[in-house]
């Protein structure tokens, strides 16, 4: 069973299967007026449901762009449909992580996730601005993953929430969708954000997903704030902070153990503190006031990132 109760009903997205774009579960709405192409994507991972609730609600509300174009998509739908409440974390993916394949789309391979990413590629390439809606295995405060570039951090600051903006390079095991193409090019005006809304099945994660999506869409100018569902916007935090990731610690054989349970965004005050061991190899904090970004307090596969280490910049 899930580590925490499932606090909301999962949406029935089968009604959106046909799409209107020639690709299942992908909708493209054209305004006919000049403006950016903006994409909101859900279900990069099949058990990250808060984003699916948001995209389902936007489609149900009949939201249409006033300027530019709006793309609404569900990504790894096969993983979502595999959900089993007795083994809820297995529905994260079918064959591999959809959010690590974006450097291999033109290489050999035939997994569920690669096939789906290849179908979504034209829409991702078209988008000028992307919001990718995620959630987390463990309870943690919401995090905005802005990527390694200054343009991502600046975009996150304009959105104005959540408090923590994570400046990071992603994962050694493969490129994320939010870093693909122009989103990862400092010379391109394109920008992408990835929001981690909180624990997968907390009702609070849905609140965060709705708030960030409403802010993002209004900020892009593709719609007006008044076009969005009432009650989605939440109070703006007094401040935000940028945590720059300096190290991504991955487990070699899947045998990483922490010295104690750490929560996301815990700060370890002293450099040289032993955080855990990968097999027999110790990992220590490289500097004082080290922020632990999304530590994984559960079993993972070899090569998976266990924790990222960051400092407030």
Number of E-state strands: 14
Strand line-up of the largest beta sheet: 1-3-2-4-7-5-6-8-14-13-10
Overall shape: it is globular
Fraction of residues in β-strands: 15-25%
Helix vs. strand class: alpha/beta
Distance separating the two termini: 39 Å
Helix content: 10-25%
Question: Biggest sheet, in brief?
Answer: 11 strands, mixed
Radius of gyration equals 19 Å
Count every helix, treating DSSP H or I runs of 4 or more residues as helices: 5
Order of helices and strands: EEHEHHEEHEEHEEEEEEE
Mean pLDDT: 95
Q: Which consecutive residue ranges, at least 5 long each, have pLDDT under 50?
A: none
Structure commentary:
There is one protein chain. With 313 residues, the protein is an alpha/beta fold. Helix content is 19%, strand content 25%. It contains 5 helices and 14 strands. The protein has helices at 50-61, 77-81, 112-126, 150-159, 203-220; strands at residues 26-30, 37-42, 69-74, 129-136, 143-145, 164-167, 191-199, 241-250, 256-258, 267-268, 274-278, 281-284, 290-293, 305-312. Strands 1-3-2-4-7-5-6-8-14-13-10 form an 11-stranded mixed sheet, with helices on both faces. A 3-stranded antiparallel sheet has the order 9-11-12, with no helix packed on it. A hairpin with a 2-residue loop joins strand 11 (274-278) and strand 12 (281-284). The longest helix has 18 residues, at 203-220. The termini are far apart.
């Amino acid at each position: 069973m899930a580590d925490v109760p499932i606090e909301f009903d999962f949406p029935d997205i089968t009604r959106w299967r046909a799409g209107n774009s020639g690709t299942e579960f992908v909708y493209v709405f054209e305004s006919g007026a000049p403006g950016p192409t903006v994409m909101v994507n859900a279900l990069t991972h099949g058990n990250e449901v808060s984003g699916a609730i948001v995209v389902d609600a936007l489609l149900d509300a009949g939201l249409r762009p006033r300027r530019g174009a709006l793309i609404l998509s569900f990504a790894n739908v096969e993983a979502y449909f595999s959900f089993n409440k007795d083994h809820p974390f297995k529905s994260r993916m079918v064959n591999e992580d959809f959010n690590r394949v974006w450097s291999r789309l033109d290489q050999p391979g035939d997994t569920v996730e690669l096939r789906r990413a290849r179908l979504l590629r034209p829409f991702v390439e078209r988008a000028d601005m992307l919001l990718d809606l995620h959630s987390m295995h463990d309870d943690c405060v919401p995090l905005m993953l802005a990527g390694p570039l200054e343009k991502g951090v600046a975009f996150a600051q304009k959105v104005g929430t959540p408090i923590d903006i994570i400046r990071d390079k992603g994962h050694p095991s493969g490129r994320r969708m939010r870093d693909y193409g122009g989103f990862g090019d400092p010379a391109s005006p394109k920008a992408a954000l990835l929001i981690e809304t909180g624990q997968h099945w907390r009702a609070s994660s849905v609140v965060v997903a709705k708030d960030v999506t409403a802010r993002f869409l209004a900020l892009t100018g593709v719609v007006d704030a008044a076009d969005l569902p009432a009650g989605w916007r939440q109070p703006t935090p007094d401040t935000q902070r940028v945590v720059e990731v300096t190290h991504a610690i991955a487990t070699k054989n899947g045998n990483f153990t922490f010295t104690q349970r750490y929560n996301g965004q815990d700060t370890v005050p002293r450099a040289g503190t032993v955080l855990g061991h990968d097999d027999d190899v110790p990992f220590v904090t490289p500097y004082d006031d080290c922020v632990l970004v999304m530590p994984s307090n559960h079993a993972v596969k070899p090569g998976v990132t266990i924790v990222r280490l960051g400092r407030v910049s």
